Amino acid sequence: MAIRETLIPMFVILPLGASFLISLFGKRSKAFCDIFSNIVTAALCMMSVYSLFLTKASGVLVYRVGQWVPPIGIAMVLDGLASFMLLTINLVAFCVTLYSVNYMEQYTKKWKFYTLFLLMLTGMEGVIVTGDIFNLFVFLEIASVASYALVAYGTEAEELEASFKYLVMSSLGSMFVLLGIAFIYGYTSTLNMADIAATLSQKGLGKIMLFTGALFIMGFGLKAALVPFHAWLPDAHPSAPAPISAMLSGVLIKALGVYALMRIIFNIFGLNQAMLSVLMFLGTVSMIVGVFLAIGQWDLKRLLAYHSISQVGYVVLGLGLGTPLGILGGLFHLFNHSVFKALLFLNSGAVEYSVGTRDLKKMGGLKERMPVSAGTSFIASMSIAGVPPFNGFWSKLIIILAAIQARQFAYAFFAGLASVLTLASFMKVQKCAFFGKLSKNNADAKEAPVFMRASMIMLAAVCVISAALMIPALSKFTIGAAADVLAGGTRYAKDVFGGIR
Questions:
Q1: Per the count of CB atoms within 10 A, which of 181, 275, 370, 495 is most buried?
Q2: Nearest 5°: CA angle at 96, between 94 and 102?
Q3: Which of the 8 DSSP states describes residue 63?
Q4: Which spans in 242-390 are helix H?
Q5: Which of 243, 251, 259 is nearest to 117 (CA)?
Q6: Stretch 394-416: mean pLDDT, rounded?
Q7: How far is residue 435 CA from its own chain's centroid?
């Protein structure tokens, strides 16, 4: 086995090992927790960048766990889509751990936070690189269980209630996924995803696999918080500490929900028009319902949570179109939303950290006292609203153009309408939180500490710089490579078996 294949399991081993070490030694030193966690997430981020070059040069890479050859043995797979998702997750994770150095000081026993955080990161990385559908479920549960505990981390009544609701509904989603895996195994007699794809391409889907697809849409739809499976998200995300809210809305619902669903529907089942039509419909409904529910909110974090539902709808609509342009736009918006939504939740955490409230009615004029938080929040707000030249504009434009190209004019109209309503919602946020007259209650507000500011500035810079991914050369290297994997459908099976060395 070539050395380059050994990089793949390191995406799981590194955060899992770090979680174990912090649980052992973190009790004795907060500094150790902060430094070690940031070193690990920075290393994962650099490895993710390297993986982009690796897959570009070598194609699909397959790691044989225990040297057993797939499909008999378990495989880990690194292709263009996996590399793209790893970069998205680890970029946000590094910024979140940097932010947590200061933010989590207000909580006791920081080592428990980092242990759970890295365990959640382990699960997400495992979901991305696994080539085995049952192991995908195992990693999904690792990430989910850690996230339940993190939502309840503050142990207040609101947090415990939200965590319990999240646990119950997410467990229901997991049950649908596990039942779907059981049907797949019964029909194909294999759990290797490439082997399942090859078997289904020969046997055909049949009615049982269409039913299985419906189970996966419900199961992963719950994980992704698509309407009507979204009820847990508006409680769970606002209740969690700001760094966890950023991870949940930024990347967790993408990795456990959107990515897993798309990998199965596109690369295992193949491009099935019935399933794609369902995804387009659910994406559009999520887009509209989420933004309407967000407009009336005055709790800043709850408003952002509803916008997560809306923006995931854009991603699912783009991917559901099933065209090369739609898939490209959906993946581009997935990356963009991960960045600007993580930034918005970190901004909300900085505001709450300084003024002690999430109520927009009790804010106002904070731009005077918190210029960095105000500036980065403005960039993120314009990005999510789709205002040029920020990154959100380009990905939304591609999705709308793809819908028009596919002659789905109603979906294009609703995508444009949701963007206008999103702009209205975030103009309210900017006006009530940062502009206007400074409230007497907030006269003593101070800017967020240095590591929190650094994290927000980095994500704001990405919101501006990532618009350059529209350049064909960069797009082809990053998002384009990921889009090719999905557009290739069941060619995934041939690529994986061809990548076994």
A1: 370
A2: 115
A3: E
A4: 242-247, 253, 260-262, 273-295, 300-321, 324-355, 371-385
A5: 243
A6: 92
A7: 30
**Rounded mean pLDDT of 387-410?**
90
Q: Would you state the pLDDT for residue 448? A: 82
The chain-wide mean pLDDT, for the chain, equals 88
State yes or no: pLDDT of 204 exceeds 90.
no
Q: Output the furthest CA–CA distance in the chain (Å, rounded).
A: 70
Which DSSP letter does residue 189 get?
S
For 225-250, what is each residue's pLDDT tens digit? Answer: 898 888 888 888 788 888 998 998 88
Residue type, 307: H
Residue found by looking up tokens 């920081």 in the block: 110
Which residues make Cβ contacts (< 8 Å) with residue 116, sequence separation at least 6? 19, 146, 149, 150, 153
Q: Are 299 and 372 in contact (CB under 8 A)?
A: no
d(CA 295, CA 278): 26
Token representation of residue 384:
């999510």
Residue pair 395/341 in contact (Cβ under 8 Å)? The answer is no
User: How far apart, in Å, are the Cα atoms of 57 and each of 43, 473, 496?
Assistant: 21, 15, 15
Is-contact 321 402, C-beta < 8 A?
yes
Taking the C-alpha atoms of residue 311 and residue 336, their distance in angstroms, rounded to an integer, is 10
Residue type, 143: A
* Cα–Cα distance list, 95 to 294, 314, 432, 467 (Å): 26, 24, 26, 19
Q: Is the pTM of this model over 0.90?
A: yes
Q: What's the rounded Cα separation, in Å, for the pair 246 and 95?
A: 10
Which residues, listed in sequence order, are joined to residue 299 by a DSSP beta bridge?
Answer: 359
The residues pairing with 19 across neighbouring beta strands, listed in sequence order, are: none
Position 501 scores a pLDDT of 63
Nearest to 82 by CA among 488, 497, 496, 485: 485
Q: Is the dihedral of CA 396, 399, 402, 408 positive or negative?
A: negative
Q: Cis link prior to 71 (omega < 30° from 0)?
A: yes
16-46 pLDDT per residue, tens: 999 999 988 888 887 888 899 999 999 999 9
The answer to whether residues 241 and 104 touch, using CB atoms and an 8 Å cutoff, is yes
- Using CA atoms, how far apart are residues 119 and 332, in angstroms rounded to an integer? 27
Q: Tokens 């967020």 map to which residue?
A: 448
57's CB contacts (< 8 A; 6+ apart) are: none
**Residue 432, token pair as written in the block:** 């009530």
CA atoms of 2 and 231, how far apart (whole Å): 46
Query: Computed from CA positions of residues 236, 240, 244, 245, in that sequence, does the dihedral angle turn out positive or negative?
Result: positive
Extract the tokens encoding 52. 């982009």
Contact 183, 211 (CB under 8 A): yes
Integer-rounded Cα Rg, in Å, for the chain is 21
